[in-house]
Write a structure and sequence with these properties.
5 helices, five-stranded mixed beta sheet
Length: 161
């Protein structure tokens, strides 16, 4: 696969999306494109808000659009900024991507004249997942590792005493 951004249609889609970013505060436009398992491409751009915590990130917008249309498996992600500085997904977006992507899902980052390529698992190892939450619940309930969590639908017998 070429390392030229101009040869990668997913990067081109992310660049196009960045042009629609709403960034009156940071002036840092970001675009993302996600390719679903069936080859459909969804794009997103960052959308800022005066209350920064309500801002939306490009990767979140792209994933949200895809999930809204029934997709929950992704083959590849591309991220760019207007600065073409090799921006990678932030930690929050990495966790969101990890919810729907495998550890080896390629993440392509636009460096202007070249591309940086990562596996999602290299960007965010040891993610919070259904499995890690289930394991934490087992530990909290005192179950041994690998045993199912305690059934909490029945009250403990000693509560009636």
């Amino acid at each position: 696969m070429s390392d030229s951004p101009s040869d990668d249609p997913l990067v081109a889609a992310a660049r196009d999306a960045a042009e629609n970013a709403y960034v009156p505060y940071s002036e840092y436009a970001v675009g993302a494109a996600v390719e679903t398992a069936d080859g459909t491409v969804y794009v997103g751009c960052n959308i800022e808000n005066a209350n920064y915590s309500n801002s939306l990130h490009a990767e979140e917008v792209a994933i949200g659009e895809a999930v809204k249309d029934g997709h929950d498996s992704f083959a590849r992600i591309a991220v760019t900024s207007a600065a073409r500085d090799g921006v990678t997904p932030c930690g929050m977006c990495r966790q969101t991507l990890a919810e729907f992507c495998e550890e080896d899902t390629p993440v392509v980052c636009d460096e202007g004249d070249s591309l940086a390529r990562y596996a999602l698992g290299d960007l965010i190892p040891n993610t919070i997942s259904f499995e890690t939450l289930e394991e934490a619940e087992r530990k909290q309930d005192g179950a041994a590792v690998g045993e199912p969590a305690a059934d909490v639908t029945e009250p403990p017998a000693d509560l009636d005493e």
